[in-house]
Structures are given as C-alpha cells and as structure tokens.
Design a protein that fits this description.
This protein is mainly alpha-helical. It has four helices and no strands. The longest helix has 18 residues. It is elongated and about 75 Å long. The N and C termini lie far apart (57 Å).
Length: 100
C-alpha cells in the first residue's frame, strides 16, 4: 500500500453535513467519496465533470431585437409555394441518395 498522507481543508459546516448525508445514502462516507473524486481526477487528468461557465442569459429586449432582425432578413426571402418546397426537398433527397 502506498504511503498515506493527511489532507485537510475547510468547508461550510452545512455543506459538509448535506453532502455527507448524500454519500451515506449511497453507502459510503465522505472520506471515501473524496478519495473517489481524486482517483477519478487522476484518470481524467482533470476535473471528473464538465466545468463550464453558463451561457450568458439573454434579456427579453435583446431576444426581441434578435427576433425582429431575423424577421427583417426573412422579409427578403421570396415566397415559395408548397409544390416548390416539396420539389426542393425531393431534389435534396435525390442528391443524398446519389452520394451514398
């Protein structure tokens, strides 16, 4: 067995209690869970979960402006009949079939 070392750190008491309850319901203690986290970090060569910043939230006003801009761009697109749309879809499908 490898030499053991003591690792100490401080966390919020309530957080520790809540997390300890979760791991106890999974049949392990907090020390085992933290050891698993470290082992998995070694295997992953990084955090064993995704660590990304959330996408910035867009305000209603910004969303409305984006919608209006797209609406303006769509106004320049010529109208197509249902037959024209179906013909275009059929042409694309036929092209895909030729490639495969």
């Amino acid at each position: 067995m490898a030499e053991q070392v003591l690792v100490q750190f401080s966390i919020d008491k309530n957080l520790r209690e809540e997390v300890a309850e979760i791991y106890e319901s999974l049949g392990m203690d907090l020390t085992t869970a933290l050891r698993m986290f470290l082992i998995r970090s070694k295997i992953e060569r990084g955090l064993p979960f995704s660590a990304k910043l959330p996408e910035p939230a867009i305000s209603r006003t910004d969303a409305w402006h984006a919608f209006e801009e797209l609406r303006k761009q769509a106004a320049d697109v010529p109208e197509m009949s249902l037959d024209e749309i179906n013909a275009e879809i059929s042409a694309v499908r036929a092209e895909r079939r030729r490639r495969t």
